[in-house]
Amino acid sequence: TDAPDSTITDLLMTAESLSKEGLFPESLTWFSSTLRDVLLARVGCDPSHLLNQDHLSTFQELTQSTSTAKLFDLIEELQSLERAPKRNLNLQLNLESFLLKLQETLAPSSA
């Protein structure tokens, strides 16, 4: 049971680091472009339209275990995260929540 706890701890530490080091805007851009590419790969878009073509094999792997609906849910979560600073919400807590949902949705199931 150490591996899941370690993964969650790593995610929480990542959220803390991104929020405290002022990397929130850059991380949103990265998450947005990556989710876009995974979604495009999921619907069978030509790889030349991907922003991160160097990760095509990873995107294709993710599409095998992730539904289009789950990807849209993540994109909605990301949009909510983008609005967090305007609503004076705690960035670190919102990042933690998003990263946990991202991991839950995209991580290969161990079942």
Describe this entry's structure for a reader:
- By secondary structure, the chain is mostly helical.
- 72% of the residues lie in helices and 0% in strands.
- It is built from five helices and no strands.
- The longest helix has 19 residues, at 2-20.
- It is globular, with a radius of gyration of 14 Å.
Tell me the layout of helices and strands:
Elements (H helix, E strand, L loop, with lengths): L1 H19 L3 H19 L13 H10 L2 H16 L7 H16 L5
Helix pairs in contact: 1-5, 2-3, 2-4, 4-5
Entry keywords:
mainly alpha
Radius of gyration: 14 Å
Number of strands: 0
Alpha carbon gap, first and last residue: 14 Å
Share of helix, binned: over 70%
Structural class: mainly alpha
Low-confidence stretches: none
Q: What characterizes the major β-sheet?
A: none
Brief synopsis:
With 111 residues, this protein is mainly alpha-helical. It is built from 5 helices and no strands. α2 (24-42) packs across α3 (56-65) and α2 packs antiparallel against α4 (68-83).
